[in-house]
Amino acid sequence: MAKSKAKSKFSASRYVDGDRMTGAILPGNSTVEFRQFPVPQPGPGQVLIQMKASSICGSDIRAIYRAHLGKGPEGYQAGNIAGHEPCGQVVQVGPNCKDLRVGDRVVVYHISGCGCCEDCKHGYMISCRSELRGAYGWQKHGGHAPYLLAEENVCVRMPDSLTYVDGALCACGFGTAWEGLTRAKLCGADRLLITGLGPVGLAAGMLGKALGATLVIGTDISPARRRLARKIGVVDEALPADDKALAKIQRLTGGRGCEVAIDCSGAPAGRLLALQGTRQWGRCVYVGEGNTVEFAVSPVLIHPQITLYGSWVTSLKHLEDLVERLDRWGIHPEVTCTHRLPLSEAAKAYNLADKGQTGKVCIVFEE
């Protein structure tokens, strides 16, 4: 795929008035509200990032947009600017910053941890249990505003070959798929089954092919999402997620199933199908959030000797690995983005994402 530096017609400057800026918040009743916020100033170890792209995650829809499901330190703090998939350019550097410079293009790993616990030291800020932990767009102001204040140590420098939309899709969606596939050690000896062809499932297909999967099968209940997966070439087969899906998977794999399966649907039926479609001695990964699953443990999991992984987002180091490989492979996550809208149309953007019939939806500010 050719490298791209396509520019958007939208500009961040229209949302700034002096030292005030417009940001989008999620009240929790399937609506979006706009409020005025001061343009932040970086403190020690912080950088100010001018937003270029800020995409919408399924977790934003499930846990914030529809209703504020999470409570306590894990929950959305009402009134915070939304958007936990931000990407932009450093415009100001605070005291004691050691690496970044004004002008650097960065992907923001979407959680800032305490930096001291075992998980943080391994780069898994997502699993930090400290009261100091905060996710951008949830407990900290996020990317649905012209500027974002971020800790320097969670910013990943982005190569020029990647667009800002590419970068926005990396930290959460593509990072989640990358972590799951690499944890399952997907390689050129494997066939890959993906249940759920939403944005994370599309990412899994694209990355699965890059890692060498010899056959990529995707399933989804949505005809629109199956068509999109086929159109952008991230799957070899896109099957309806119905009661015939398992038989079709078996037929496509000579009755054996796939060596690796990943559930990106978060649906009980999708999770079960992922396990059932995994080959004996194979590896299955659950990354889709929410809901439950119920199955007969012995015939579905134990007797086929399947290894089942639960994988939550990715680590800071693995995000850096992903960005480096996207550059090397010439791969652009933005091909999974079907809708780009300005901040002023954030309500439309969230409504589109909520319907579950699109690829990735992204709010863009790029000049």
> Could you name the CATH topology of the largest domain?
Quinone Oxidoreductase, Chain A, domain 1
Instruction: Give the second-level CATH assignment, the architecture of the largest domain.
Output: Alpha-Beta Complex
Helix share, percent: 25-40%
Give the termini separation: 24 Å
Ranges with pLDDT <50 over ≥5 residues?
1-8
For the sheet with most strands, the description reads: 7 strands, mixed
Q: What's the number of domains? A: 2
CATH class of the largest domain: Alpha Beta
N to C succession of SSEs:
EEEEHEEEHEEEHHEHEHEHEHEHEHEHE
Structural class, by secondary structure, is alpha/beta
Strand portion = 25-35%
From the alpha carbons, calculate the radius of gyration and give it in angstroms: 20 Å
| Principal-axes shape call | globular
Give me the number of helical elements: 11
Look at the structure and name the CATH superfamily of the largest domain.
Answer: Medium-chain alcohol dehydrogenases, catalytic domain
Report the mean per-residue pLDDT as an integer: 94
How many beta-strand segments?
18
